[in-house]
């Protein structure tokens, strides 16, 4: 691997993950990972552009940023690329009205979205809201559509909380894919479009970013 | 296709499905499908051996047979091949102690099974018991095992109730497979072993059965 000086030569921007990189989520707002508050501060003082790029889909950006600021991070809502706003843009562009299989914490991101007579399903990390009834409702909506559209905010398998491992959105996305014989459209990491939109927001090309 | 006389020539036994063939499940015990009560009676009066072969995993055999008898069917518990007893045999043979992600209605089938310190998961059509908490418990059990074993009673996508389409065990099996990066062992249809055990019970070879 090239030495750091050389690797950083053409670098203009940095994308930072949040959960598991800046902080560990959990009861009471989670905890900052050692050194990360200062690392973000130093990056922001440097000539590099910084963008936060997360698959967090249990909380709205407002809630997430509030939590991080309380932990000492210099971060604002406008600096965050998250899957819910990206999904909203897709819904508007394609005239889609979703049944929302999501956590109540992220529902405010969809305030401007028409959810009457659903013609698609949006699934996110819903946690306890992944009840049989709710998952079955989403399934029934999909089965009644001629061209079922399932939009998944990420496809993570699981994440770690202070209380233990927790099922993420991916397993439930797979459940609906199998039940309906369809393939979900993933919005969020690892979708290249998602990273591109984060880079566009800071005006940096992929080869100039880390 | 050969005429019936010829096709029936070497026939010695018949395997009959139950749900969707003999009756439709639903509120109030379901309803017999037209002609099926009499068809079973006629088969039993014939020289053919009859065995009922079901993937029903929400009810114990006792409950299922009780329901069918109330609808007029000539059927007894001993004539039914079902996945729960087949799974119990596997658990005993391999010294497995399951975490049971199942419907309360079928729990009695596992009365003789040691469920302390689970070293595997058995998943069945659990209906409302597929809460996030329960599915996550099963996931955590599997993730703590060096060699995670997931036994699934069938892998059906969905079934029809009078109230609409309902998610079956298959989608939840897929969810756990994806979350843990494993492959489930399916007990029940369409596993060849399951059909073989049904045929063995009536002493009939595969080529002699319909």
Indicate the topology.
Two copies of one chain form a homodimer.
Chain A: H1 4-8, E1 13-16, E2 23-24, E3 31-32, H2 36-45, E4 49-53, H3 61-70, E5 80-81, H4 83-94, E6 98-101, E7 120-123, H5 132-143, E8 150-153, E9 158-161, E10 164-167, H6 169-180, E11 185-187, H7 192-201
Parallel strand pairs in A: 1-4, 4-5, 6-7, 7-8, 8-11
Antiparallel strand pairs in A: 2-3, 9-10
Helix pairs in contact in A: 5-6
Textual characterization of the structure:
Chains A, B: It is an enzyme of class 3 (hydrolase). Chains A, B: It catalyses: diphosphate + H2O = 2 phosphate + H(+). Chains A, B: GO terms for molecular function: inorganic diphosphate phosphatase activity; metal ion binding; phosphatase activity. Chains A, B: Belongs to the HAD-like hydrolase superfamily. 2 copies of one chain form a homodimer. Chain A has 210 residues and is an alpha/beta fold. Chain A has 2 domains: 12-82 and 191-208, Rossmann fold, CATH 3.40.50; 83-187, HAD superfamily/HAD-like (Rossmann fold). Chain A contains 7 helices and 11 strands. In chain A, the strands form 4 sheets. Chain A has a 4-stranded parallel beta sheet with strand order 6-7-8-11. In chain A, strands 1-4-5 form a 3-stranded parallel beta sheet. In chain A, helix 3 links the parallel strand 4 (49-53) and strand 5. In chain A, helix 5 (132-143) packs across helix 6. The radius of gyration of chain A is 18 Å and the shape is globular. Chain A binds chain B through residues 126-133, 135-136, 139-140, 143, 157-158, 164-168, 170-172, 174-181, and chain B through 126-133, 135-136, 139-140, 143, 157-158, 164-168, 170-172, 174-181.
């Amino acid at each position: 691997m090239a030495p750091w000086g050389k690797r950083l030569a053409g670098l203009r921007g940095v994308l930072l993950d949040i959960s598991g990189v800046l902080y560990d989520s959990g009861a009471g707002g989670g905890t900052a990972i050692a050194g990360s508050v200062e690392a973000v501060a130093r990056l922001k003082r440097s000539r590099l552009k910084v963008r936060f790029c997360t698959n967090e889909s249990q909380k709205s950006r407002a809630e997430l940023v509030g939590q991080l600021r309380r932990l000492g991070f210099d971060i604002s809502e406008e600096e965050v690329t998250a899957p819910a706003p990206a999904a909203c843009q897709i819904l508007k562009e394609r005239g889609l009205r979703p049944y929302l299989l999501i956590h109540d914490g992220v529902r405010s991101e969809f305030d401007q979205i028409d959810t009457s007579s659903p013609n698609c399903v949006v699934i996110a990390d819903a946690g306890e809201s992944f009840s049989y009834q709710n998952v079955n409702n989403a399934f029934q909506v999909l089965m009644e559509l001629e061209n079922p559209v399932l939009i998944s905010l990420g496809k993570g398998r699981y994440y770690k909380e202070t209380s233990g491992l927790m099922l993420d959105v991916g397993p439930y996305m797979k459940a609906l894919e199998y039940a309906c014989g369809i393939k979900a459209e993933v919005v969020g990491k690892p979708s290249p479009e998602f990273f591109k939109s984060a880079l566009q927001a800071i005006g940096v090309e992929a080869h100039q970013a880390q």
